[in-house]
Amino acid sequence: MGPKKKSDARGGVPKPGTKQAKAAAEKASETAKKAPPAEEQKKPTVKQVIGGASWTGKLPVNLMSEHCQKQKWERPEYTMDKIPDGFIASVILRRTDPKTREITTLPPMKFPSAHKKLAAQSTALEARHFAATYTLFRVCNKTNMHMMLPPTYKKLWKEDFEKIKAEDIKRGDTWMYEADPFLAKKEREIAAAELDKKQREREAAKAKTADNGVNLSLGPSGKNKGNNIWSHAPKVDLGARFAILESERKAISEEFTKLGFRRSHVEEASTACKDREEVLEWLLIYVPEDDLPPWCLPERYSAGVTLATDDLAREAKIKRLASVGYPADLCARTLDSNHGDEFAAAAFLQSTLVHGSSSNDTLFLDAEDSWAEEQETLEAIFGERYSSKSSKVCEIISESVDIADSLCFRFQRPSGHYPSSVPVISIQAKGIPAYIRLSAIRQAVQYAEGNFLGEPMVYNLIDWFETHLPEIIENPGRLRDIASIAAPHSPAEPTSELPVRQRVKKTKEVAWTPDSPQSISIKEAWEKKQSTKAQQGMLQQRESLPAWNTQDAIIRAVNAHQVTIISGETGSGKSTQSVQFLLDDMIKRGLGGAANIVCTQPRRISALGLADRVSDERCSSVGDEVGYIIRGESKVKSGTTRITFVTTGVLLRRIQSGSGSGNIASSLADVTHVVVDEVHERSLDTDFLLALLRDILRTRKDLKVILMSATLDADIFTKYFGGPQSVGLVNIPGRTFPVDDYYLDDVIRETGFSPELAERGYEDDAAPSFAAEESLGKVLRTMGMGINYELIAATVRYIDARLQDQPGGILIFLPGTLEIERCLAAVRKIPNAHPLPLHASLLPAEQRRVFLSPPKGKRKVIAATNVAETSITIEDVVAVIDTGRVKETSYDPKDNMVRLQEVWASQAACKQRRGRAGRVRAGVCYKLYTRKAESSMPQRPDPEIRRVPLEQLCLSVRAMQGINDVAMFLANTITPPESIAVEGALNFLHRVGALDHDRLTALGRYLSMIPADLRCAKLMVYGSIFGCIDACITIAAILTVKSPFVSPRDKRDEANAARASFSKGDGDLLTDFAAYQQWSDRVKAQGYWSTQSWCTTNFLSHQTLRDISSNRAQFLTSLKDAAILPVTYSDSNPSSNDSRWNQNAGNRSLLRALVAGAFQPQIARIAFPDKKFASSVTGTVEVDPDARTIKYFNQENGRVFIHPSSLLFSAQSYPGAAAYLSYFTKMETSKVF
């Protein structure tokens, strides 16, 4: 008997039609709507995709990260390549040295290309985990790490990876599977250096005992004999593309062909050179010795090399390899790298000749039958002309006497399967130069690979040689195609484009299609982040800035115009907010994936500070969504970074480097917005950038350019970019408090100042009333036009009395450091004043004192140069005293003179100074000049392009592809420079060798690629040529930064004595260089902080020395990028470098000569007075002249003077009886120094 069915609502199913039934139906319907589809519920996780449905352990990527963390390596980086078969990833490992903080980066651990199909994965996710597994195998193959992997990857580890490892070890690549790949890399570099060192020692020994049959020497020493005479000389590529007229080229070809040169060589030389003399030099340098006309060589000279070693077997192998035509030193190195295996070395040389690298042929195993069978056939065909030298080698003598005497072909069985691989070939013949034989071999191998593979080919090769060899001898092809393998030196390509290792990648164009998968993902992440507590807090701070209220206006203006000008006072938030408004707008419109905003800053510190601030406001890390690029340092992530702050020079270099295609717009193809900040400063780089951007905008209609200025003077920029119809304009109101102005007459009335009473030293409270003493006009006439420091002191007293107990600092603007010292001397007489200096020459610690609160009962009084106008903000300043003066450099192109003059500041600068008083509350500005003087001040300072020499700018413009007329380009800048200044700059570039007939020379291109002053760049190029590169880089870094010595006013004599202790009488630069070297040695031995006391004792700035060290590192990187230095050159490990780079580092005479050569034409003649003699016990002796009687003259100015701060100011004699003096800077103040 079953249980009774319940009909109430609490029990079973409700009756149909009842309220309970309807409610249950509605609830079931809602539940069904909310429930996700079955497919979504079953979507597999990453762990299930990679490890399988039942896998619960860790995944390869996680294990890789954990291993790097345990080893104290950097986080692994994954690269991804898309191929037809899917995705292939690789891992890049990095390690930071805990002591030096130097980062070592290993090459990507790529899977062997022969097994590419195994590495190809269907998705990028699987490719990352495959790459992580392979990298783990590389570094953990001796552990049981595979036990922690998912089944699929465990199988790969135990089977496929082990097989690949066995192949690599068999090939001699055991180092690939070391547990510490960084140590393995270092050991390989040391081993390579040792091998190279031993090789040089052997070659030096050979040279000393060489046979008299070789009678060719480099220089008077007679060392480095034989045809590797140039193998250890630095390659100096100073050619450029200069077209010789066709008629002249034919005449040169006929003339030199009659002299015995091959016509093909003469024609090749004429394409690489610009005149007859260069063609002859090219032929004598690059045509191999065995192909030169007899008159080019000494009598009884025999080309070739005589080896002298104790290892006769090795010597015989090298001779046989070299007889093919390869250089003997290359044969020796190849033989050693192949462990003495002559057959393997021969195969390697041929593969390098044909393909530029060794072949990947697998070792032969069961190919005996094919080779042996063909040998029998060849013997039957050629009879006595055939001879078998071994089971691997045969020789066949040719019957073609028309080609050469005793022509013999030698064939060696290949290391790969035959006939699937071409045999190793050599040609023995008298009268055929080595490079022609190599050219024939290369062409034959290339033809055989395309036509003979898969069938016995020796007979066909001999037939090919006898048919084509006469034609090859007649026209062997270009020397440069063979020279890289056939000779220790190779001819330069006839092009002004020099080898640069780091080329700018071809950038993808902006994809303006909205709502791409990447853009949708970015938008979802952005929307999610807006609701976080941290982001809400940052938004509240941003909303308090004046710029926030102009957000919509900025977005509308930018979207409607190609060019937009945003002006706003300092502190309005324009620099931090505008770029974020643009990015957020693109994200909202579904274009976040395309966004790439580049914002330029005139100073490195600004780029770094803004990147930090904006990334904080967006609650992200620097280098993710927001990054920066400055010279020598960058933090960006490709595909992730949307806002990049860069220095103006970095963006200019990007445009210059990317102009190789002839279209400068291609360098910014992936950029959506270019924001140029601080355009009101009108720096040289900014004006240059604006000129380039205007040209780029003509072809990039989708590119947006935003100019940001601290002053509302947009008219000049509006006109430059096409007028009000083409340019948007947004003004952001400032956030400053009102500031009252007092002019000179007001100040005198308020303070009751009188010059005569000030000289008698009256007290303020005892000063008589102004009206009773004298008229205002008389006081103004008495004061004159100079700066009155007693008036400044009286004004400080007056301000302090008005403020009483209220806090607040006083900021005084003065033109220079001397004026600051005199001002502070007057202010120190005020009891409760806390005087502080502020200028660029102060140490950072001294500069930071102005931001600190003054002692209790004291008032902070800061005397500053114009560095306090815009660069920094002192929050507690409530009063400003403005002298209205500034020291400004000007350039006179007529006499090539830079002058430092004290002039009236501009009205725009005075406005900036005034604004400093209203940052925290209502302030007062005391202007120590009249209203009339203010009205006569210039509106704004002259642009820098009109105030400085233009050599560097002209070189940068000329280096741009597609710009041939420098003067025309500069005439189209926003404020064109004077034509005489441009002409002078171009003339200077011709004098230093950067231009030749208005064309860029190779030296000029090198100089344009090195981000340094022209003279510094030239010095570094010279250092690489003459074997003192480290010294020249250090000197260039010192010139770029400043002298590391400091000279406090109260200890000037002690500072001068300390500096003199480093001097050897050869000038300021080498003295500073000696100080840096001693500091560097101490740092390496003791560490940075232990050298601080030594720096203090010797009056050296520790920070400046570190800045010099930083600039050295940047210059080293630039020299490597320009292919001047090898990428393996190490500054931190000099012992690993080739000794030739610094073999003359201790030769101070050479250093002086290189400095003079780099500075030329900045040379002054030393004019000594008539000699004087004094009697002594041993007779009369010459007396050194008094320093004041020695005169100096240069070409432009006549007599010039040495500045008192120079060590040579009191010099009475010069080392090496020097008659000339080189100088880096010339400036006119009271004299021409």
Question: Your description of this structure?
Answer:
The structure is a single chain. The chain is an alpha/beta fold. The chain has eight domains: 46-186, no CATH class; 246-296; 312-360 and 368-486, Ubiquitin Conjugating Enzyme (Roll); 517-732, P-loop containing nucleotide triphosphate hydrolases (Rossmann fold, 3-Layer(aba) Sandwich); 739-756 and 779-941, P-loop containing nucleotide triphosphate hydrolases (Rossmann fold), CATH 3.40.50; 952-1000, no CATH class; 1010-1145, no CATH class; 1165-1222, no CATH class. Helices cover 43% and strands 13% of the residues. The protein has 47 helices and 33 strands. An eight-stranded mixed β-sheet has the order 12-11-13-10-14-15-9-16, with helices on both faces. Strands 17-24-21-18-20-19 form a six-stranded parallel β-sheet, with helices on both faces. A hairpin with a 2-residue loop joins strand 25 (995-996) and strand 26 (999-1000). Helix 21 crosses helix 22 (574-588) and helix 41 runs antiparallel to helix 42 (1029-1040). The longest helix is centred in the N-terminal third of the chain and has 28 residues, at 181-208. Residues 1-13, 209-241, 360-368, 485-505 and 762-773 have low confidence and may be disordered. Residues 373-472 form the RWD domain. It holds the Pfam family HA2_C. InterPro entries: DEAD/DEAH_box_helicase_dom (IPR011545), DSRM_DHX29 (IPR056328), Helicase-assoc_dom (IPR007502), Helicase_ATP-bd (IPR014001), Helicase_C-like (IPR001650), P-loop_NTPase (IPR027417), RWD_dom (IPR006575), UBA (IPR015940). Residues 311-352 form the UBA domain. Keywords: ATP-binding, Helicase, Hydrolase, Nucleotide-binding.
